[in-house]
UniProtKB/TrEMBL annotation:
Repeat found in the keyword field: no
Name the UniProt record assigns to this protein: VIT1/CCC1 transporter family protein
Native source species: Hyphococcus lacteus
Major localization class: membrane
One Pfam family it belongs to: VIT1
Taxonomic lineage of the native organism: Bacteria, Pseudomonadati, Pseudomonadota, Alphaproteobacteria, Parvularculales
Keyword 4Fe-4S: no
Keywords, sorted A to Z: Membrane, Transmembrane, Transmembrane helix
Length: 249
């Protein structure tokens, strides 16, 4: 029985794949935004429902959280990725300057980097000559090997948009039962139970989704994210309940 592999190793397919290069991955932005959206909205729903306020209050505060906190998270993630991008540009300019001012020192850095990888003798010197023959290739090697810079540059705008969409979509789920309380004649407490189940399903779904990019089985990843998300939601609910008791609401 032959084990299925992820991609073809035919020469033409390899050439095409290497030509396209690695692609930026925004999975962590989706997972981060989705979990936070579900947790924060669920905490608001739980707090308001626990205070025996009306369905309208739940929906208004929940919607405000989706928009305000979602935008805040997206802006924060945009700024974080932008800071990484700016730092990459700074390091790139620095390496260009060092190569111009101290080329032999930079060649020695390349030599030691590849010596640590097992190159030696003529092979090592040839590797150094090939790499340093092109300034762009030289700088790229130094960025990745000396500074640990990623090979793929992530877009701040895309990271921010993905975070906001994930936050909004997953965060809207705890509100859904309260949109139909009048239509199906359920109480706020019943709506809260349904919202809890649906929020748990969102966490499990996020875990199942991210298992496509991990070695974990889908149900293991789903349960892991489910427990992490529900613990976070429980903590948020517990803090709200504690503060409610302190203020005597």
């Amino acid at each position: 029985m032959h084990e299925e592999i992820e991609h073809s190793h035919a020469p033409d397919d390899i050439a095409k794949r290497l030509e396209d290069g690695p692609q930026a991955n925004y999975l962590r932005d989706w997972v981060f935004g989705g979990i936070d959206g579900a947790v924060t909205t669920f905490a608001i729903v739980a707090g308001v429902a626990g205070a025996s306020l009306s369905t309208n209050v739940i929906l208004i505060l929940g919607a405000a959280n989706l928009l305000a906190d979602g935008f805040s998270m997206a802006a924060g993630n945009y700024s974080g990725v932008k800071a990484e991008q700016d730092d990459y540009k700074r390091l790139r300019e620095m390496e260009h300057r060092h190569i111009a001012l101290a080329p032999e020192g930079e060649r020695e850095e390349v030599r030691q980097i590849f010596a640590a990888k097992g190159f030696e003798g003529e092979d090592l010197e040839r590797a150094v000559d090939i790499i340093t023959a092109s300034h762009e290739r030289w700088v790229k090697v130094m960025l990745e090997e000396e500074h640990g810079a990623p090979k793929v540059e992530r877009s701040p705008k895309t990271a921010g948009v993905v975070t906001f969409i994930a936050f909004f979509v997953c965060g809207a789920v705890p509100l859904l039962p309260f949109l139909f309380t009048d239509m199906v004649a359920i109480s706020v407490n019943q709506g809260m139970i349904i919202a809890t189940i649906m929020t748990g399903a969102v966490f499990f779904g996020i875990g199942t989704f991210k298992s496509q990019w991990s070695t974990a089985r889908w149900w293991v990843s789903g349960l892991e994210t489910f427990f992490i998300g529900m613990i976070a939601a429980g903590v948020a609910y517990g803090v709200g309940a504690l503060l409610k008791s302190w203020v005597g609401a």
